[in-house]
């Protein structure tokens, strides 16, 4: 059994939740989202995040706006829609329940 494959699948399972959580407080462009995930030790490459951001936008959870940059081309800033905020609250509750259950099982002696 390949442990790296299992670890990658676990990370993928929470990536959507993490991205929405990053955007909870303020809009951000892709590099900011990637940096936040990287700082949390959740390593994600651009080839993974762009399709996910597009899917979340197409699902109505995110919107975006273009903003001029002082250091290069315009940047696409993503933000949560009202539907995205509701979805994130649901995921947050589910995460708490799941995390509590896993901790209860894995910490049993």
UniProtKB/TrEMBL annotation:
Record domain Transcription regulator PadR N-terminal: where: 19-90
Pfam families assigned = PadR (PF03551)
Q: Where are the annotated coiled coils located? A: none
> Which InterPro entries does the protein's record reference?
Metal_resp_DNA-bind_regulator, Tscrpt_reg_PadR_N, WH-like_DNA-bd_sf, WH_DNA-bd_sf
- Fetch the Gene3D superfamilies from UniProt: Winged helix-like DNA-binding domain superfamily/Winged helix DNA-binding domain
| UniProt protein name | PadR family transcriptional regulator
